[in-house]
Amino acid sequence: MTKRISTQRTFSGVSRRSFLAGTGAVAAGLTFSGKGFAAEEKVLNFYNWDTYIGETTLDDFEGETGVKVNMDLFADNDELFAKLKAGNPGYDVIVPTNDYVERMIAADMLVKLDHAKIANIKNVDPSFLNPAFDPGRVYSLPYMWGSIGIGYRKSRVKSVPDSWKVLYDSDEYAGKIALLAAPSTVLQIGCKYLGHPLNESDPAVLEKVADMLIKQKPNIKVFAEDNGQDLLLSGEVDLTMEWNGDILQVMAEDDDISYAVPKEGGLLWEDTLCIPTGAPHPENAHAFINYILDAKAGAAIADFIQYATPNAAAKALMSDEYRNNPAIFPTDDVIKNSETAIYQGTDYTQLVDRLWTKIGAA
Amino acid sequence: MEDWRRGRSAFWLIGLGPTVWLVLFFLLPLTIVWLYSFAELRGVVDMEVTGTLSNYARALDPLYLEVFGKSLVFAGITTGVSLVVGFPVALAIVFATPRWRPVLLLLVILPFWTNLLIRTYALIAVLRVRGFANFTLEWFWEQSTTLLSLLGLGSYQLLGERFEPLELLYNNTAVIIGLVYVHLPFMVLPLYAALEKLDRSLIEAALDLGASQWRAFLTVVVPLSMPGIISGAILVFIPALGSFLTPDLLGGTDSQMIANVIERQFKSANDWPFGAALSFLLMYLTFAALALRAVFARNAGGL
Asked: Alpha helices, DSSP H only, in chain B?
């Protein structure tokens, strides 16, 4: 599930621009009273994905508030969850994906946010303010969002892959396709291909998807751990199921690569900003979340990492090229057909893992 | 030699550190995981040790036994290939001149200086479609094609119209190559230790008495180096059985080993009790293999 490997490399070209944008955010002079967190030491521990923050965001925040940010990196949600499961080792702000927000709420691992301390909530696009995984945004605020679709090599496909059939149910590109090594995601999208909801939990349907994958297995080259985009770039495969951000990175390096979300719809994900239970600096954490939701700070981050921002005020500051890129912002049709994964409890997770073992062993 | 009983306090003082370390960082965590294997999940993060055997019952499902079986086959093939490749290497080092011996040994140990992950990625760079192995083959293909056209045979396209790269990565062969590559030093070093102690006059005697080179090797060298072969086989087989990184990175859709299943229980499946049960089954299996070896060794007349 590493979605952000190597953004740094790809987008180093925009670093100068980002730097200027970041400086602009400081010059704009955000309104922080500073009084609220006088009692806390001036430190914040941030646990984030790799290359998933603006180039100067942390320094700018320190310049603004005097709070020094220490950032640690995790590679996937499972690592984040496992690290906090036995007790918070000292993190103040974390960036879990939507279904893990649900999981962590269920496990009492997140604290309620004090919206009064996060005035910049007003910048968030209203459509993001009441998601099913956290109604009313009690525990989480949106950071970035995106889709899972098909990354492909234009010169090697007969037409734009507009159906999941090419990956799940066809030998058209035998030996040249990769799926994600993410058990629940692969089964969920398989449900969608067969006309069921993404979050179908009926064991009979999931078994059917697993059987389809077992049949398809000889045509699949590999379940890619976190490198589908590299396999595409190096010519190892011609089509791969991937996160849009990963494909965007290699699209910047190779004109022959493109990205599409099939007509059956895909999976939409959202990474969020949360404060874990036991955070030692909750005041600083609120100030930090507020800072990230600022228009200019948010635009500087989006400009650097090239993911879709849910921050309407930040998006307004961005270039047309960014705002109109269908690989960053899916079209309305795609959004209409796509769904978001929800956390479905232990029985579902165990069933999914058993089916995944079965697919691997078959 | 002085009896340790005379310096009892010194003995305890020296022994204390390792003992504390072993108990605190080996036995205690192992016991905790063992207890987990008898636990039941309670909600998302909590589990309760209830003494249930349900985790083991689930682990004995034919599906998981099949994965255990496949892992045993992978580990077995890895051990076999390592032995066949490692024996000549160890022999070569033993028979090298004293000046070269330390250099050759260093070369065997050298890979340990680089992280396993880095070495595996390097192997990917060699084996992939646009990798060094295929680049080399393509070069030979081009040279041969040029040669053929110089000989006036170009129009027949004897070697195909264009070079088709081999699919070397993301299959079970790649996993075996990776496992052998990683574990070979563990085979070579014990073999070297055993062969170095070998009395060379015995080989000379065998040859003098009319045995062929091959016969002398099979009837003299191999039996005398058996302790090295067995320790090497154990040192390769056990870690290979528990590999998860190599099948993850080099394997295809058919390369799942039991450690991959175990890893998932502690991550995406979030089912620590079941993961613990699978881990301990793997450990019991290893103990059983070692016990079996001991029995065979005794029956064979002692080693």
From this structure: 8-22, 28-36, 54-59, 62-95, 101-109, 116-127, 132-150, 172-196, 200-208, 213-216, 222-224, 226-241, 245-250, 258-266, 272-299
CA distances from A233 to A7, A252, A306, B4, B133 (A): 15, 11, 19, 65, 18
What pLDDT, on a 0 to 100 scale, did the predictor assign at position B301?
Answer: 55
Angle among Cα B51, B56, B59 to the nearest 5 degrees reads 155
The secondary element (H helix, E strand) that includes residue A46 is strand A43-49
Are the beta carbons of B220 and B203 closer than 8 angstroms? yes
Second CATH level (architecture) for the domain A147-267+332-361: 3-Layer(aba) Sandwich (3.40)
When CB atoms are compared, the residue of A222, A346, A353 closest to B268 is A353
ipTM for the whole complex = 0.87
Contacts of A286 (CB under 8 A, 6+ apart): A113, A114, A117, A118, A275
Query: How far is it, in rounded angstroms, from Cα B164 to Cα B131?
Result: 13
Pair B175, B246: CB distance under 8 Å: yes
Looking at per-residue confidence, does B47 or A68 come out higher? Answer: A68
Phi-psi group of B113: left, alpha or beta (phi > 0 → left; psi -120 to 50 → alpha; rest → beta): alpha
Please name the residues in contact with A12: beta carbons below 8 A apart, sequence gap of 6 or more.
none
Which of A83, A254, A346, A359 is the mutation pick for testing B, counting most B CBs within 10 A? A346
- Which chain A residues are within 8 Å of B270, Cβ to Cβ? 78, 81, 346, 349
Q: Which residue of B has its CA nearest to A362?
A: B254
Q: Are A188 and A335 within 8 A, CB to CB?
A: no
Tell me how many degrees the CA angle B65-B67-B69 measures, rounded to the nearest 5: 70
Q: What is the pTM of this model?
A: 0.85
Structural domains of chain B in order of their starting residue, each with its CATH number: 62-128+169-299 (1.10.3720.10), 130-167 (no CATH)
Residue B118 predicted with pLDDT over 90:
yes
B227, B192 in Cβ contact below 8 A? no
Q: Answer for the pair A51, A5: CB distance below 8 angstroms, yes or no.
A: yes
Q: Do B252 and A221 touch (CB under 8 A)?
A: yes
Q: What is the mean pLDDT of residues B59-72?
A: 95
Bridge partners, A179 (sequence order): A223
Q: Residue B190 carries which side chain, given as an amino acid letter?
A: P
pLDDT for the residue B5: 66
Are A105 and A96 within 8 A, CB to CB? no
Cα–Cα distance measured from residue B18 to residue B29, given in angstroms and rounded to the nearest whole number: 16
Which one of A99, A104, A354 makes the best mutation probe of the B interface by having the most chain B beta carbons within 10 Å?
A: A354
Q: How far apart are CA A312 and CA A123, in angstroms?
A: 6
The two beta strands, A93-94 and A43-49, are parallel
Domains in chain A: boundaries: 7-145+269-323, 147-267+332-361
Beta bridge partners of A69: A44
Helix (H, G, I), strand (E, B) or coil at B266: helix
Is there a contact between B248 and A235 if contact means CB atoms under 8 Å apart? no
- Which residue of chain B comes nearest to A82, CA vs CA? B267
DSSP state of A308: B
Q: Is A96 on the interface with B (CB under 8 A)?
A: no
Homologous superfamily (CATH) of A7-145+269-323 is Periplasmic binding protein-like II (3.40.190.10)
